[in-house]
Amino acid sequence: MSNEPTTSPTDAQARPNVARMYDYYLGGCHNFAADREAAERVLQIFPDTGVAAQTNRAFLRRAVRYAAEQGVRQFLDVGAGLPTQGTVHEVVRAVAPESRVVYVDSDEVAVAYARRLLPGDDRTAAIRGDLRRPGEILADPEVGRLIDLREPVAVLLVAVLHFVPDADDPYAAVARLRDATVPGSMLVLSHLTLDGVPPVAAAQGQAVYQRSSAPLTPRTYAETERFLAGYELVPPGLVQLAQWRPDGEPQAGVSHGYGGVGVRR
Ligand SMILES: C[S@@+](CC[C@H](N)C(=O)[O-])C[C@H]1O[C@@H](n2cnc3c(N)ncnc32)[C@H](O)[C@@H]1O
Asked: Is the beta carbon of 57 within 6 A of some atom in ligand 1?
């Protein structure tokens, strides 16, 4: 299978893309002019967005390390984005080298980069898939090859659910993934919120994303917590991202969202 994107570069580059905007916030180099311009507009409204993106990545690293330390050896990372420093397979393999990771993203450019940058081994794969169609993700041959659904799986939905509007029923999609996994499986969740953000700034930020590849649906604490139905929350529960089990790793303390880990009952 080719690792190259199949849309023309012009199509792929013309519209700000949320995966590459996020890459720009993180200081990455896999982004185009339209992505940088949109990201700079967001940074004018929320200057700490880059720090918040680092905070989210640090949460992801802590959460997957926790899952690996609890004995989980399979990771399904939906909305994985571009492989960046401290990727999931690097973190979990430091705990358990046999861990298997499937990266899933709806953006074909992100998947193409992932295939190019990931190790060419038999324990990682990057596939194209849409969280709004969880059945297709679960039926993907690469998922079937690397993820044994009879064993616990950590499903990672980190900074992705806010790209799925209520009209697409993200709660049903999360429940579908939950129901496909056995007790002891985990959900690692982070979600953007605009709780406490002045309405004018919130509207300006959302307007930038409205013209991107995936408009934003920030959610409240209660709306975010609903995604964890059927899971028992690991202490300290669903909290500001920087407050979830800080481990002394140098990390930024700016949270634009909530994060938590649940264990399937
Ligand atoms: C902000 S990035 C988060 C990347 C990574 N999970 C992290 O937290 O560092 C969001 C990613 O979700 C992807 N995405 C958006 N909507 C999606 C959907 N419906 N299904 C799968 N991926 C999606 C985007 O392409 C992007 O790569």
From this structure: yes
Nearest in space to 18 (alpha carbons), one of 3, 32, 2: 32
Q: How far is CA 166 from the centre of its chain?
A: 18
pLDDT digits (tens, 9 = 90+) for 30-60: 899 999 999 999 999 999 999 999 999 999 9
* Predicted structure pTM score: 0.94
Ligand 1 contact via 132 beta carbon (within 6 Å) = yes
242 lines ligand 1 (CB under 6 A): no
Instruction: List, for residues 217-253, the tens digit of each pLDDT value.
Output: 999 999 999 999 999 999 999 999 999 999 877 566 7
Start-end of H helices in the chain: 9-14, 18-25, 33-45, 49-69, 88-95, 108-117, 134-139, 141-146, 170-179, 199-210, 221-225
Query: pLDDT tens for residues 121-160?
Result: 899 999 999 999 999 999 999 999 999 999 999 999 999 9
**Nearest atom within ligand 1 for CA of residue 77:** 6
Query: Does any ligand 1 atom lie closer than 6 A to the CB of residue 58?
Result: no
